[in-house]
């Protein structure tokens, strides 16, 4: 494995640019409210206090006062309810029975396990409607067998909802993957992100052979998705359901910010399942 410093040196500028999970950014706003007072809502400069609309995103700008920040917080909160009212009205106009059907229950075909990154909303990038996808997101789309959250989601989605496809979707430029390779103590994030270092260790030879750092990160993103697919396949719920029903099947995808497109890594589900079951066979109920 390449020395971590070599791997991660140009990382900080990238993390800052991406507004991802860099710890400084995570804690900056609540701890620096006084500093935020230097910023003003673009809606509050001067006399224009008209309420924001769905398309006017409130912002804080240089020169703000605490009052401006307070106004910004109110507006950025209220716009969500305005958006929600518009969405509900639109849905009812398109289909008067829409919410009656929605309240009748869910039967989604897909389980989506993606990154928490705000730029990758599962339904929007796939064109799926409410009711079609069961969604779980966490930092760097990890499937960790001691994480009760993701394990409960998989169990419920497979055994009770009967999903037909499980998608693990990573993304190029993942701040979580990059942070994992930063030679720095990230506190509570250490044990979570260590799962990604484990992926690097498993594929050390291949990754070390990639000299271009961005390409190496991108490959680590892909390999992380593949390893998380393997973790999904290790679960009893998936093995038993597949044995009985021939579904769900597991897919590994990666989203790219450059073009907004999903890439299917085309993991060989059946062969991966067979290899996993050599050691992790839980298919007998
Ligand atoms: Zn990410």
From TrEMBL:
GO biological process, one term: carbon utilization
GO molecular function: carbonate dehydratase activity; zinc ion binding
Segments forming a coiled coil: 193-220
Protein name according to UniProt: Carbonic anhydrase
InterPro entries the UniProt entry points to: Carbonic_anhydrase, Carbonic_anhydrase_CS, Carbonic_anhydrase_sf
Reported cofactor(s): Zn(2+)
Species of the source: Cordyceps confragosa
Sites where the protein binds Zn(2+): 115, 117, 171, 174
Catalysed reactions, as listed in the record: hydrogencarbonate + H(+) = CO2 + H2O
Keyword Lyase part of the UniProt annotation: yes
Function: Reversible hydration of carbon dioxide.
Family (UniProt): Belongs to the beta-class carbonic anhydrase family.
Keyword Lyase recorded: yes
Enzyme class name: lyase
